[in-house]
């Protein structure tokens, strides 16, 4: 999959805590060792959007800048994502609609999706929890 180059100051590079090849444009979180991994639960706190496909131990480039527009793999197959919906992660690192109190979200959808695997644009807001 193609990658999107990080501009200086728009993100961070941290060690990949697992094989992230094929996971570009997925939401990611940190494990207990401070390494980048794909979320394993829909309640995980995402830190940003993976921009490359590193092997385990490689440098994972993560777009974190609030106000940036990121390409993100979405899963709108269960609950459709509409333009303007807040989105967070599912248990596979794909963007899903987040609308319940207590849900963690990372941005606002700029494109709609009603299917699994569609790349959508997301305006990153930084991790936030719905009140």
Low-pLDDT parts are none
Give the ordered list of helices and strands: EEEEEEEEEE
* SSE-based structural type: mainly beta
Shape: globular
Whole-number total of structural domains? 2
Describe the largest sheet: 5 strands, antiparallel
Q: How many β-strand stretches?
A: 10
Q: How do the strands of the widest beta sheet line up side by side?
A: 1-5-4-2-3
Radius of gyration using CA atoms only: 13 Å
Query: What's the mean pLDDT score?
Result: 93
- Share of β-strand residues: 35-45%
Helix content: under 10%
Give the end-to-end Cα distance, rounded to a whole number of Å.
36 Å
| Alpha plus pi helix count | 0
Give a verbal description of the structure.
The protein is mostly beta strands and 131 residues long. The chain has 2 domains: 11-63, no CATH class; 69-129. 0% of the residues lie in helices and 40% in strands. It has no helices and 10 strands. The chain has strands at residues 11-15, 27-30, 36-37, 48-50, 59-63, 69-75, 86-89, 95-97, 104-109, 116-129. The strands form 2 sheets. Strands 1-5-4-2-3 form a 5-stranded antiparallel beta sheet, with no helix packed on it. A 5-stranded antiparallel beta sheet has the order 6-10-9-7-8, with no helix packed on it. A hairpin with a 5-residue loop joins strand 2 and strand 3 (36-37). The termini are far apart. The relative contact order is 0.22. The mean pLDDT is 93.
């Amino acid at each position: 999959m193609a990658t999107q180059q990080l501009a200086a100051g728009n993100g961070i590079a941290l060690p990949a805590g697992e094989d992230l090849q094929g996971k570009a444009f997925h939401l990611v979180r940190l494990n207990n060792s401070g390494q980048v991994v794909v979320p394993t639960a829909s309640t995980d706190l995402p830190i940003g959007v993976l921009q490359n496909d590193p092997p385990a131990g490689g440098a994972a480039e993560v777009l974190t800048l609030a106000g940036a527009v990121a390409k993100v793999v979405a899963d709108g197959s269960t609950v459709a994502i509409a333009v303007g919906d807040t989105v967070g992660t599912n248990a596979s690192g794909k963007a899903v609609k987040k609308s319940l109190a207590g849900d963690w979200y990372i941005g606002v959808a700029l494109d709609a999706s009603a299917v699994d695997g569609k790349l959508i644009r997301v305006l990153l807001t930084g991790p936030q929890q719905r009140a």
